[in-house]
Amino acid sequence: MQEQMAMLTKEQKFELTAYMERTKSEYLQKIIEQVNLQNVEYFENLACEYTLQLKYAIQNQQAKANGDKTQENNVPEITQIGHFTLKNDPLNIDDPISMTKKPEVIQMHLDILYKSVGFLSKHKIERILDDYKRAKDQKQREEEERLRI
Fold this sequence. Notes:
The protein is mainly alpha-helical. The protein has helices at 2-7, 10-65, 96-99, 103-116, 122-148; strands at 76-80, 83-86.
């Protein structure tokens, strides 16, 4: 390689160096674009998840206020593999995790997210929410199938 470099003229070395710099810049630009796309996707998914959690929390709160004790409120929820808990378990009132499931807390997180991430908007999230929910449900079905095998 050194021998080949020594055989280049000054102009050829200059052109080769310029070419290499352009190639590096283009490569770095592609990396930055990919990272930006991943960030957009991450924050959109986060906002979608908070939005879904908020809807579920409001539904549960309304069901409690109406005195509904539907089957859905007591469906076992997997919190970790092999461990099940009941949603709205009266024995877990002091559970600090339940605090994060309150609609007011979730709404606060959503508000902070919308204010701190400039490219997110409530309108945009509402547009992509159904696709997010379908993808999430599909992923959950695939994971359940994988665990059965």
